[in-house]
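Throughout our pipeline, every protein is held as a single compact record rather than as scattered files. The record that follows is passed on verbatim for readers who wish to inspect the format:
___
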Amino acid sequence: MELRQLRYFAAMVEEGSLSRAAARLHVSQPPLSTHLKALEQEIGAALLERGNRGVTPTAAGAVFYEEVRAILARLEQARGKALQVHRGDIGTLTVGFVSIADYSLLPPALKQFRNDYPLVEVQLQELTTDAQIRELRAGRLDLAIGLAPVDEPDLTFERLRREALVLAAPADHAAVQGEGPVDLRTLARASFIVPPRAIGPGLYDLVISRCQAAGFAPRITQSARQMQTVIGLVSSGMGVALVPSSVQNLQRAGVRYRALRGRSAQIELGILRVRGGAAPLAHNFIRTLHQVAGTAAIAAT
């Protein structure tokens, strides 16, 4: 039994005429009639009655038609779902992200992606870049948003945006009184809060090199893995921190943010994924991230 025979039979019942069914199916009448007779022979029962009033189903044909219609509807549904998966319109996407992304690109990207792909479920995991690398290799993430540098031969890193470092200091700290950018040299005796190098070598090295360029080695008294923890320690008066500019969106009582004087020190935020072609779901989300990053870049200039 062939699928086209089922389609031919359904068309014949619905049209009630060999000529109309043939025109609808874009086939000539002789092969259509031949296929329908072969179908009846295979089933072992007459399915159609041909008379002066056209073609009508027999009792067996009427029952068979209801089943065939259900089969064809399920096939069409299956075809539609397969096409949705192929285009990345449906499914589940697992995305890792560093906390910095949650203060900048991620919220508007998720909003746009939900509008464009309402049938896709996005599962988010807040992870440091080193943890993202492990989860990507284990196949537990489809992609991630992390911090450069990432020099792993089996992974790719696509830059989304650069962010300048700014100073986060307790509101009563002398460095953030008044207006204008802060000269980093005035913080030579300050206590610094820095994420451990093991989880964010790019940010750690940038902070160290920026301080060294100002003529001192920072006195690191606290380490914290997440930016919200860093800012929490700053608000408690435990020290100062150099953080990406988007962290200013994390408002915390007792913390003031200020730009740094002189050449800007910048950290890169980008997309991490396993090298090779991205699945349609991941590709669609990556495209959305780039669109949002481009919009943000224009708005910031």
In short: The CA atoms of residues 185 and 214 lie 5 Å apart.
